[in-house]
Design a protein that fits this description.
Order of helices and strands of chain A: HHHHHHEEEHHHHHHEHHHHHH
Number of strands of chain A: 4
Largest interface: A-B, 41 and 47 residues
Helix content of chain B: 25-40%
Order of helices and strands of chain B: HEEEHEEHEHHHHEHEHEEHH
Oligomer: heterodimer
Structural class of chain A: mainly alpha
Largest sheet of chain B: 6 strands, mixed
Largest sheet of chain A: 2 strands, antiparallel
Shape of chain A: globular
Number of helices of chain B: 11
Radius of gyration of chain A: 24 Å
Strand order of the largest sheet of chain A: 1-2
Radius of gyration of chain B: 19 Å
Shape of chain B: globular
Strand content of chain A: under 5%
Number of helices of chain A: 18
Distance between the termini of chain A: 20 Å
Number of strands of chain B: 10
Chain lengths: 438, 268
């Protein structure tokens, strides 16, 4: 196969323009954060690490919003329990893969098997939630999933399940202390013993570390990139590969008769039924698959840090995914990826960097202690204290900031940043005709 | 005049009268929308269902197609009962309907709307659409379907709108789209709820001619229509409903002279 053939095939799988769009957005994000890093006086390692964190979060949110897009964007299924399904998958994986000697003990399965187990568990919980709720009106699914998500989080937090035994096997969720997840396989690429970097590096690891250790880049101070940053970047790249896989899968689902029925269900379920479509069966399938994909996204995300705890699965996590999808435009797979990236870079990480940047460039003095102290001076046209307060408490105010962004988007760009997109649900190009074309 | 309810289940009845409704009743609170309606539709006929507003025509359609469940009575399709079946199961057997207030899928293109319709598409199974080895056949089937959809759109004079979102169509165009869609399902009995409302007169005539053609091929149509000219000149049998009951039945000429029908329309 020639290179031209390969690019043609690639273009068939991805829409050429859309790939350019996604690459453009990522480049824009990188340029912005390189500039921010330079302004903050980061050295080479710090800059590369900043980009690693952004890439990682962008990929994680892209994966989650792609999965949510399948449920909400395509079929109109309002799942507000994203965090709960994530928790089911990650905890199941942790329990299946954990060492039998660990605390809490696990079953010691290989990681890949445990990850599949986690996805299946999320799918089953999704199906169980969906079966009764999908028979009712759309709103009930939202209520059921919201409640289920919280039940799951509170259950894994509960001391009752922190340690329990099933059929003689001692298992547990670790309760509030969380549970460890086996080291991610990417570390095995670099280290002989993934859990102990000091035990030596693999030949590949030695070569890579040697290269990055002495790396210098013009205009950046400092020499070399840390081993942890190199390993972290590799993991982020693996996540990006999964974004590509998710995208291809969802595109295939969307551009098919199956996707057409999903769209019809979203538009008018009775019309779809009147044309002989068993809408309930379609909804259950797509909901279950969406939950499995959310599960995989969560496993990939949490798998990077070797440890997870119930605090990761608060309802706000679900809303973050919704905001990412709304930013990109529900119903569009390309939009989901872009939404995930833009959300992670500018809305999630952005405020933090704004705070550091402002703090670095200007002397703000001490921030007022309370919002009252911040707001009252506005009456005398002094907005300084208010700005200092906002910058100083930007992390706490992030939900407020996100709420404002959401309201703005809903009013000004309800179809997402990309505007209204026509993504056609058919396995062939509908602008062409004839038995052989497209 | 109104015949006795046909004996349900007889095989010959099923072929001659593919659709039979027996004592159909539906109450909404204190109002009885359909009150023991009993009628049958001859195979290969173009039967009119008329009656003043609120006579229960649309509700009868809803009851036949499983959109609503009757409080009493039964619906027979072919030689078996379909009462209580779900809407999609009834449609799959070949009994489909259009809606008085059109239910086009607004954010889908006209072509997508039409391509949605055929039953049992290979690619409606998730794994067939996704797995690399099987996807090829789905694409092949889609190509053939695309061509068929274009031909249907051409007939209904909607081909110039193929790429438009269905939501942007005019009222008459939506009616046409719904008709195109149900015909794509290869039905045997079609219930049309005011299909001519908003359709221009020239196209109306062409549509009626097309319905007669399809009828000759064995399709059966039950037509709710307020345009009496359409009913009188095209239907060989007319059923008149009033206050949820079948008031009269017969040939158009008989119906036009029926005192009770005239009274019902004049609010008697």
């Amino acid at each position: 196969m020639s290179v031209a053939d390969a690019t043609d095939r690639l273009r068939d799988v991805f829409d050429g323009n859309d790939v350019r769009l996604v690459v453009g957005v990522f480049l824009g994000i990188y340029v912005t954060f390189i500039a921010v890093s330079v302004l903050l006086g980061f050295d080479l390692n710090g800059t590369v690490n900043t980009l690693r964190r952004i890439t990682f979060l962008a990929a994680a949110y892209a994966l989650l919003s792609l999965a949510l897009n399948l449920q909400w964007g395509y079929a109109g299924l309002f799942n507000i329990g994203v965090a709960g399904f994530m928790a089911v998958a990650v905890y199941t994986t942790a329990i299946l893969a954990g060492a039998p000697t660990a605390s809490p003990p696990g079953l010691g399965l290989p990681l890949w098997a445990a990850a599949i187990g986690g996805m299946v568990a999320a799918a089953i919980v999704g199906a169980v939630a969906a079966l009764p709720a999908l028979r009712l009106k759309a709103d009930y699914l939202a209520i059921v999933t919201l409640a289920l998500g919280e039940i799951i989080r509170i259950s894994v937090l509960s001391r009752t399940f922190a340690s329990f035994s099933v059929a003689g096997l001692q298992l547990g969720t670790g309760g509030g202390q969380g549970i460890s997840i086996p080291d991610n396989p990417v570390r095995g690429l670099y280290y002989l013993d993934p859990s102990n970097p000091t035990a030596g590096t693999t030949p590949f690891g030695s070569a890579a570390f040697a290269f990055f250790d002495t790396l210098t880049v013009p205009f950046f101070s400092g020499t070399g990139v840390n081993q942890t940053v190199v390993v972290g970047w590799t993991y982020a790249l693996v996540l990006l590969v999964f974004v590509g896989l998710f995208y291809v899968l969802l595109r295939r689902i969307g551009n098919s008769p199956f996707g057409r029925v999903l769209k019809a269900i979203r538009e008018d379920e009775l019309a779809a039924q009147s044309l002989g479509k068993n809408t309930r069966a379609f909804k259950i399938q797509v909901f279950t698959l969406g939950c499995a994909l959310m599960g995989l996204a969560a496993i990939l995300w949490q798998g990077s840090q070797g440890y997870t705890s119930p605090g990761e699965y608060l309802p706000i996590q679900t809303f973050y995914v919704f905001i990412a999808l709304i930013v990109g435009g529900a119903g569009s797979n390309t939009g989901s990826v872009i939404g995930g990236a833009v959300f992670a870079a500018f809305l999630f990480e952005g405020p933090n960097f704004v705070k550091r940047l402002v703090g670095h460039l200007f002397d703000l003095g001490t921030a007022p202690n309370t919002i009252v102290d911040a707001v009252v001076p506005i009456a005398s046209l002094e907005i300084g204290p208010f700005l200092t307060y906002v910058i100083g408490n930007i992390e706490i105010l992030r939900p407020v900031f996100l709420g404002v962004v959401l309201i703005y988007l809903m009013q000004r760009r309800p179809d997402g940043l990309l505007g209204h997109r026509k993504e056609i649900a058919a396995a062939v190009d509908l602008s062409k005709r004839g038995e052989t074309d497209g | 005049m109104a015949e006795a309810a046909p004996a349900p289940g007889a095989a010959t009845e099923g072929a001659d009268r593919p659709l039979r409704v027996d004592g159909l009743t539906k109450r909404f609170g204190g109002i009885t929308a359909v009150d023991g309606a009993t009628f049958s539709v001859d195979g290969g006929s173009l039967t009119g269902l008329i009656g003043p507003n609120g006579a229960g025509k649309s509700t009868t359609f809803d009851l036949i197609t499983g959109v609503q469940q009757p409080d009493a009575g039964a619906v027979y399709f072919g030689d078996h009962e379909i009462t209580g079946l779900r809407t999609h199961e009834i449609a799959r057997q070949g009994l489909v309907r259009t809606f008085q207030i059109t239910r086009e899928l607004p954010e889908m293109t006209v072509l997508e709307n039409v391509m949605l319709a055929p039953h049992g598409q290979r690619g409606e199974r998730l794994w067939q659409s996704v797995l690399p080895g099987l996807r090829g056949k789905v694409v092949e089937e889609e190509r053939a379907l695309r061509e068929r959809a274009w031909e249907t759109l051409e007939f209904f004079e909607l081909d110039h709108l193929a790429d438009e979102h269905a939501g942007t169509l005019s009222g008459g165009q939506r009616k046409l789209l719904e008709m195109a869609r149900v015909l794509m399902t290869d039905p045997s009995v079609v219930l049309l709820d005011e299909p001519m409302a908003g359709v221009n007169p020239t196209l109306q005539e062409e549509l009626m001619a097309r319905l007669h053609e399809l009828r000759a091929e064995g399709l059966t149509f039950l037509l709710v229509e307020h345009d009496m000219d359409v009913i009188m000149s095209h239907c060989e049998h007319v059923i008149v409903m009033h206050q949820g009951r079948v008031l009269a039945e017969g040939e158009p000429a008989e119906i036009a002279d029926d005192e009770r029908v005239i009274d019902a329309y004049l609010g008697g």
